[in-house]
Design brief:
By secondary structure, the protein is of the alpha/beta class. It has helices spanning 6-17, 19-27, 52-64, 86-94, 109-121, 128-148, 166-174, 180-187, 193-199, 204-217, 223-234, 240-247, 262-266, 274-300, and strands spanning 31-34, 38-39, 70-74, 80-84, 99-104. Strands 1-5-3-4-2 form a five-stranded mixed sheet. β3 and β4 form a beta hairpin. α5 (109-121) packs antiparallel against α6 (128-148). Residues 1-10, 12-17 and 147-154 have low confidence and may be disordered.
């Protein structure tokens, strides 16, 4: 009885499945890759933070393991560049693991960029800075692919995202012109998206003047202020003094106010209207101030 050789089995399998299908199945098979051989993607725009979400991911991996393999591409030195799965790799290292399941796929720089960007854009929480640089990288990769294929012109911004319009994509890419400190304020929701877009048109020196005024006045620019600074810049009129003047304006949402529930005031002036209540409070404060002055005078005798 003749025992089929390994080569014959492989040939029969290739004939049955087809050479291409066999290679495709092999490319989708996870392999255990040593964490020491993994390197982050160059210019990776997504932040990997050791926060509550990372703690939850670590707990999940500790309980169930890495449920979804990461995606890597081989490098010339025999190691691997992470295309998708930077947070999972961070969690595995934090847990002291030695390796991680990974799908290894050879791919060009442009192909890797597109997969890296698209695999992260679906995340529930994504920072403005992450989306801005992700869209920029994807735009550049698609444009380079078009040139490599001999296509004239560049890819439309409408091709970049399935959720944001081409105009919105353009506005996000504008944020990459912000200095890091202002972009961080956007990520912390201290500066509105529309404000960041307007400030992105200012040169670095003007942006640093804006940042300085933010620190001096303990405030951030409103859309009106940012729009006027952008307008002055277009007209060649923007100076440090202009920025200082605009940023020193008092904005309604930055005026100090004291709020007292109306029902509490009704105990002392049940029939007063809002204007009379305000007058009542002011007179009460004045009366109390005079009382404190009299008390201080008695104590000094």
């Amino acid at each position: 009885m003749t025992i089929p050789t390994k080569d014959k089995n492989e040939n029969d399998l290739k004939i049955l499945l087809g050479e291409n299908n066999l290679q495709a199945n092999e490319a989708q098979t996870p392999h255990a890759i040593a964490l020491a051989k993994l390197h982050p993607f160059h210019e990776h725009p997504y932040k990997v933070e050791d926060n509550d979400e990372m703690a939850e991911l670590c707990e999940s991996i500790c309980t169930h393991g890495v449920l979804s393999p990461i995606l890597v591409r081989p490098t010339e030195d025999g190691e691997y560049e992470i295309v998708s799965g930077h947070r999972r790799v961070f969690a595995c290292r934090r847990l002291g693991l030695k390796d991680v399941p990974a799908i290894v796929q050879p791919m060009t720089q442009e192909e890797a960029v597109l997969k890296m960007v698209d695999s992260n854009l679906h995340r529930e929480h994504i920072l403005p800075s992450e989306k801005a640089y992700a869209y920029k990288l994807k735009m550049e990769a698609l444009s380079h692919q078009g040139i490599a294929c001999g296509q004239v012109g560049h890819k439309s911004r409408d091709d970049i995202s399935d959720t944001d319009s081409g105009r919105q994509v353009q506005r996000y890419i504008r944020l990459t012109y912000l200095i890091p400190e202002l972009l961080e304020k956007m990520d912390k929701e201290e500066i509105a998206f529309s404000v960041g877009v307007e400030l992105s048109y200012l040169d670095e020196y003007s942006q640093r003047d804006v940042l300085e005024q933010c620190e001096i006045n303990d405030c951030t620019p409103s859309y009106s202020q940012a729009w006027r600074m952008h307008k002055a810049d277009r007209e060649g009129l923007l100076t440090k003094d202009v920025i200082q003047f605009l940023m020193s304006e008092e904005k309604p949402n930055q005026r100090e106010t004291v709020k007292i529930p109306t029902e509490k005031l009704r105990e002392f002036a049940p029939d007063a209207n809002p204007r009379q209540l305000e007058d009542f409070v002011l007179k009460a404060c004045e009366h109390y101030r005079k009382y404190l002055i009299r008390q201080r005078g008695r104590e000094e005798r």
